Automatic annotation (TrEMBL):
GO terms for biological process: translation. The keyword Ribonucleoprotein applies. Residues 1-15, 29-40 have a biased composition (Basic residues). Residues 1-40 are annotated as: Disordered. This is Large ribosomal subunit protein bL35. InterPro entries: Ribosomal_bL35 (IPR001706), Ribosomal_bL35-like (IPR021137), Ribosomal_bL35_sf (IPR037229). It comes from the Bacteria. Pfam families: Ribosomal_L35p. One of its GO terms (cellular component) is cytosolic large ribosomal subunit. One of its GO terms (molecular function) is structural constituent of ribosome. Belongs to the bacterial ribosomal protein bL35 family.
Amino acid sequence: MPKMKSHTGMGKRVKVTGSGKIVSQQAGLRHKLEKKSSTKTRRLTGTVVVSKVDTARIKKMLGR
């Protein structure tokens, strides 16, 4: 039986913390920044914990 391969693209987008939570960059900070207020862009900086709905799918893609 061949080994399970982890999804390399997902590995570049998310990070698993020591406690097992999955954190990723928030969406919406790549383009059209002139239209967005400074408050909104400031709020979007940093990483956030991925929602519970997506956690199982992402962990499967990472081979965990």
